[in-house]
Amino acid sequence: MESIVPELIHDPETARRIARVLLKHIRPRDKEEAREILKGRLGVYVAGKDSLDQEIDLYFN
């Protein structure tokens, strides 16, 4: 059975939702820590990293 995760995360809105949940649970201290965590966990699956950066900005503002 083939995994559908890579196809799902190519959608920017799905990537943002996953990033939002991770940020709420992990509670990083600053933007740099948040960026390291998200790109380390989701970076390989996300086509465009802009959605992760946007979610980080929303989380800290």
Describe this entry's structure for a reader:
The protein has 61 residues and is mainly alpha-helical. The chain has 4 helices and no strands. It has helices at residues 5-9, 12-26, 31-41, 50-60. Helix 2 packs across helix 4 and helix 3 (31-41) packs antiparallel against helix 4. The model has no long low-confidence stretch (mean pLDDT 84).
Structural class: mainly alpha
Report, as a whole number of angstroms, the end-to-end distance.
41 Å
Rg from Cα:
11 Å
Q: How many beta strands in the DSSP annotation?
A: 0
Taken as a percent bin, the fraction of beta residues is: under 5%
**Major sheet description:** none
Poorly predicted sequence stretches spanning 5 or more consecutive residues = none
Helix-strand sequence: HHHH
In a few lines, what is going on in this structure?
69% of the residues lie in helices and 0% in strands. The protein has 61 residues and is mainly α.
Question: What's the arrangement of secondary structure elements?
Answer:
Blueprint: H1 5-9, H2 12-26, H3 31-41, H4 50-60
Helix pairs in contact: 2-4, 3-4
Q: What are the defining features of this structure?
A:
61 residues, mainly alpha, 4 helices, globular
